[in-house]
Amino acid sequence: MDFITSVTVAPFVDMFTSPFFFIEVVFGGLMTGVMYSLVALGFVLIFKASSVFNFAQGIMVLFAALFFVGFIELGWPVWLAFIVTIAVMVVLAVSIERVVLRHLVNQDPIILFMATIGIAFFLEGLGESIWGADVHPLNIGIPDDQIFLGEVLIQEIDLFAAVVAGLLVGVLGFFFTYTKVGRALRAVADDHQAAQSVGIPLNNIWVIVWAVAGFVALVAGIMWGSKVGVQFSLSVIALKALPVLILGGFTSIPGVIVGGLIIGAGEKIAEIYWGPAIGGAIEEWFAYVLAMVFLFFRPQGLFGERIIERV
Predict the structure, then answer these.
(1) Tally of structural domains, the chain
(2) CA dist., res. 119 & res. 112, Å (int)
(3) Which of 13, 60, 275, 285 is 20 to 30 A from 234, comparing alpha carbons?
(4) Per-residue pLDDT tens for 243-289?
């Protein structure tokens, strides 16, 4: 009996102690972290430009993905569905500014935050009313095969998502730093009244930033939808962006990538190596516990701006 047990257990012990298996676990976690970062980018864009935490960003990811896959299911070509969905997100941005934000200029941040909660519930209900609550498979040709890099097994869709995230970070970083609109966005975030006093049109700026956040939500929705299908659980997955923001910083675009990599790799390692000892399901709560601990030591995040208030 002991011989049989040792023969059965030995392959699993070898697997867990193999350096290649560890690298595979870490790499898979890093790629999942990149997917979290794609969602977190939308949060950072709106917070960076308006100092408003947009609770609706996760629902915007779902909302954009639902329209995109819905148009494809109607028989539209992918390129047309993508363009029309971008137009839908721009119309959504204009509507949010006209109906909600315009009436809340210079209000306390908590009021704007509560408004985004209302937007989230509205978009969730609207998306379900139009497209239903079923799971929508999304296959637009993004590679999803498994390949070997040496001894390490990886998913092609993860590599594709990493490239997309890198491009988005580069473009958005350039946009905020070197363009006139980007500098205006940062000025609005610093002080709404001061920005208006020097002629920056606050309403137009908010439309732009919500439209860009809508585009980022569409990209994130396509990546996640291609991996797990377009379904309402995407809004739950999007909540993983919150600990990513806490680690990376609410105002740092590169920070969300670093935060996503830490969260993704950390939860995957914890699940594989600690899960069997404590019962599993670590991936469900690891990110939030890590973020809570992180708040004790560096609440502004690794790359966030330290808030100094003079009294």
Answers:
(1) 1
(2) 10
(3) 275
(4) 888 888 887 878 888 888 899 888 888 888 887 777 667 777 888 88
Question: In this structure, is residue 5 part of a structural domain?
Answer: no
52/299 Cα distance (integer angstroms)? 17
Q: What gap in Å lies between CA 203 and CA 159, rounded to an integer?
A: 38
Q: Which of 218, 256, 229, 65 shows the shortest CA–CA distance to 157?
A: 229
Q: Is residue 7 part of a domain?
A: no
Q: Evaluate whether residue 304 is within a structural domain.
A: no
Q: What are phi and psi of 104, to 5 degrees?
A: -120, 20
Q: Which of 140, 129, 146, 144 is nearest to 232 (CA)?
A: 129
Residue 20 lies in a domain: no
Cα distance between residue 198 and residue 185, in whole Å = 13
* Phi/psi of residue 152, nearest 5 degrees: -100, 125
Q: Tell me if residue 147 falls in helix, strand or coil.
A: strand
CA-nearest of 87, 83, 88, 117 to 100 is 117
Q: Which helix (H) or strand (E) holds 70?
A: helix 57-73
Q: Which residues pair with 155 in a beta bridge?
A: 146
User: Is 167:257 a contact under the CB 8 Å cutoff?
Assistant: no
Q: What is the Cα gyration radius of the chain?
A: 21
Single-letter code of the amino acid located at 64? A
Q: What is the pLDDT of residues 175-195, one digit of tens each?
A: 777 887 777 777 766 666 666
The three-state secondary structure class of 155 is: strand
Q: Are 233 and 220 in contact (CB under 8 A)?
A: no
Predicted confidence band at 80 (pLDDT cuts at 50, 70, 90)?
very high
List the Cα angle 51/57/58 in 5-degree steps: 145
Residue 37 near residue 214, CB atoms below 8 Å: no
Q: Which of 67-71, 125-129, 301-305 has the highest mean pLDDT?
A: 67-71
- Domain of 49 in residue numbering reads as 35-297
